[in-house]
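Quick log. Single chain, no ligands specified.
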Amino acid sequence: MKFIFVLGIVALATTQVYAESRLESITHKGQLDVCTTGDYKPYSFLKADGQYEGTDISMAESLAQSLGVKTHYIKSTWKTITPDLVAGKCDIAMGGISVTLARQRQVFFSHRIDIDGKVPFVRCNDSQKYQTVEQINTPSVRVIEPTGGTNEAFARKYLPNSKLTLSQDNLGIFQQLADNKADVMITEASEALYQKKHYPTLCAINTDKPLQYGEKSYMLPINDMAWKLYVDQWLHLAQETGEYQKILNTWF
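-> predicted structure:
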């Protein structure tokens, strides 16, 4: 009798976990809620007309299509995107998100999307001056980073002696570099290479040997394995069929 009772509890718990999965609730509400910052080209960018675009925005549309639902984007920031997901404001967070152990303590990550790494982004004329952490980590070097993300965390940990400025305008940083209002931005090689097309006087340093190894992924609510397994399989198929590469090719 005790064995039957235990089985009943396990079955009930399994049913409750399944019922609470985003996989089911997204289908029922007919909408995929996506947290994104909208300030990180080429991954996520909020245009003046209120529409989002970017590689991860296209991937969000693909994920929603696979579920037969529409997308709904929730504007977030690098400082609040993890708390927003944890608070249940969205089903998934997308937009060039770096995998970190600090985030891993609070969320699930999907399978890896890309390998990326942090590099200095500087005026091309100063390329030789800012090759290493040691060269950048001096009081005379003006480092600028967006508030709240892994770039700020890198600067605070490895560049404590530099003159750090934090910006609420992630996309405006590149013009400040070009205008000699700052010297160095530490960012992912992918962003630097993309922005190089729009700011030809700026150069990404040693993209083949980044200052810090990194991976990009999508953030998912913790302890929802049904939803994570679905997203992982969808991502796997998108990568293996060439859908993801096709999206990348439109931006890089």
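The first helix runs from residue 2 to 19.
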